[in-house]
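Quick board copy: two proteins, each given as sequence then tokens.
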Amino acid sequence: LGDVYKRQISYLTGFFGWKDVFIGLTISGLALIVIYFLTITNALEKNSNRKKKKQSNIKELLKQKQLYWISILGLISWSSVTAMANIFLIRYLYWHNHWSTETSSNSLIVFWLAIGLSAPWLGHFSNFLKSRKAVLYIGFSIQIICTFYIIWFPNYSALLLSFVFIGLGASASLQIYMFLLVRENVKASLLGSASGLVNMCVVAGGGILAPIVGGIISVLHEHYGYSYSNAYNVGFYIFPILAIIGLLISIFYIKAV
């Protein structure tokens, strides 16, 4: 939900100046640190009298095959955030719809809200369906539909595009769902390391996909004479392709729990 406040931070910077805004953010950060230390308990210290379990080594972690697939799914589900929304989508809307940066940013607020509001309910929804995999099927199917819509009908209807952004945000919240899968598929002694590996893959997705998509757009525009709008269209096909791969992995490689 923090991304929703980007525009507000921009307004505050214009009104108060960047220095005062940075001081305010620093003070709020220090306040959060105090709240953290007062409210969050350390389970390791609380259970310090218990016998310490033998720590798992890296070889044991690498034997967890489900962890590889879950990490890939995390990268794919979050690709619409790390590469699409954060880097390319605003410029894409400019070239296709001639929207200003402010208009495009405001239209994406529903995307960020959908991520924040959907994430807490995925586990409950899977409990209702009595299937962890069903949520993956639904989420990646929505991501496929939404990414294809953005490519094929970017300027068809602003209202419908908002609903597409909501669907895309809801599907992106599968990234949080991956940590539930980690907990249920990986040994308890490996949970901390496994969660860290999944999170690393999720964040690394932006670093991997951004230069690939950007390179495709640049090559098509500069060397093959594509207009920017058409070059973006071709580059964006990476996202529905990834979503299809995510759906196939969910069907054939994720264990039902």
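And the next:
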Amino acid sequence: RIRAPHLGTAFVASSLIFGLIAALVILGPIARYGRAFQSEVQTDNAMRGARALEVAVGRAIEREWDSLVAVAANADPGDLESIRGYANAVLRAGGRIAWAGFADRGGTIRAGAQGTREGEDVGTRRWFREGLSGGSVGNVYVSPQRRPGSDSDDEALVNLSTPVTNVVGQSVGVFVFSLRMPWVDTYLKMAAEELELDAFILDREGNVIAERRAEGAPALAPDAIRTFQLNRPHTEVLSGADVRDEVYAIIPNMTA
């Protein structure tokens, strides 16, 4: 007897922040002559679930990006106190941002939330270089120091950066937000639970840094991460550790 299928999803770090993998776990054997049809139905369901979660989480991250762009558009490099005020306000807005600040064109932080990191040279940092040339969403990393409002010394963050321009459109610096991954984890859990999906966020090395998995749900199949290298939307049917079939819908470059 075929029991009701269970949907699951997984995020894997990609060229920006995430790629998206959705997994549909078949909880019972598929009848021999119905297997092809059942697989087709399940892969279609998996891809639809993946797309829905992609939209939900993508919109949440997009809201933070839009906020960053709006702050940068109003930042006056000649008024550092005002910029510092913007950065402080960002930290108070829901706790999603661990740190915010402005670096001038030379790569020196001139205004930071709560006055932190001011004077630091960030000219070689990826978020600064790419932010100066048009904007950047970086890779997940672990903060080397505790940020304001955090209860952890090793909080996972991702930097969002965008240029600050003058009246003629020239880049004169970079504004940056350090987005808290635990917030993304919380939002992921909410969205995935509403969609009845299991979800994982992994870094480039395949380490799980956030997840929503129902009790008793199987772990993410190692082969699922390898298929992500195909770098195109597709589905895969893989055998799980408990010999059940798992159908993965892979959507790389979710934030591209």
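Board note added afterward: The chain has five helices and twelve strands.
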